């Protein structure tokens, strides 16, 4: 497709949106199509598509919802593909490309079932809004559009429940979307579940006239969210530290294996490499020790007494405090914990605090490990170079 054809197509499609787009169609409009065009281009760059493939996605992205220009949206993919057939032939495209673009338009029909990479790309771009920061704004626009087009009205709670079911049944197809879109979708799904709970609790509180209780629950949800996010962040940091330590252990093990296998055999022939070799081995060993210390678990005595529970001192949320307790005592302690909100929150605070202490120790040891490896490795390389320069005979 030459540049003039693309320019002509874009002028035509924009004019058609301005002239034929219905005002009640507030979601499947030009803004939505523009978003899809941008997203197919973004995903297409990831896969290094050919110029022709990018152009086909570009055209299909613009035209995938033009079926909304006619009717209420039922079968709009088929209508859109028929309109594409007529115009693209007039534009000068061959039938093979027109058929491919029509297939891309039809692939966006829900439930999606793409047959190839290009269809997967446009399907993921079409439902990008599930992962967008503007998800709730856009889903409410879609709800409004349904109402405008004469579909049965639904309450906000029912709409959110339907949206949740749709999101649970949906999955992204391309590797790119799974990496970059899926996290946002999961965050929106978690948010929508919270909004459903809020809507249900609001409705219940309103019917029972318990406004104070509603405010209290809202505060408790905020506290629970705070604890959940804080614990999640701590665990993520702990996993990151363990991964870094494992990398250092692996790297240093490989270096030691190579040094022992190679240099030890030639040390008699090149004795001046002895000191640099020992420096490198020592550096790797010390770095490994610190990396192992950073990942070494530390378990406490595993017993919380009934007296500790009675005085609200025992933390039953950490396995190291209860793994040697009899099951009946543990159950009794957990029931006491669940029945006392203050005790529960104190235990959670204590758990987060000591997790932070453990993290601090991990990162302190890990920093030592990296510093030793960095400086020791540099000094070892320098010593190898010096030994080579001083003792290697200069060729004549």
From TrEMBL:
The chain crosses the membrane at residues 247-267, 273-293, 369-391. One of its GO terms (biological process) is defense response to virus. One of its GO terms (cellular component) is plasma membrane. The keyword Transmembrane applies. Residues 31-129 form the HD domain. GO terms for molecular function: hydrolase activity; nucleotide binding. CDD domains: HDc. It comes from Cyclobacterium amurskyense. Residues 226-386 form the Pycsar effector protein domain. Keywords: Antiviral defense, Cell membrane, Hydrolase, Membrane, Nucleotide-binding, Transmembrane, Transmembrane helix. This is Metal-dependent phosphohydrolase HD sub domain-containing protein. InterPro entries: HD/PDEase_dom, HD_domain, PycTM_dom. It comes from the Bacteria. It is found in: Cell membrane. Residues 200-219 are annotated as: Disordered. Residues 200-211 have a biased composition (Basic and acidic residues).
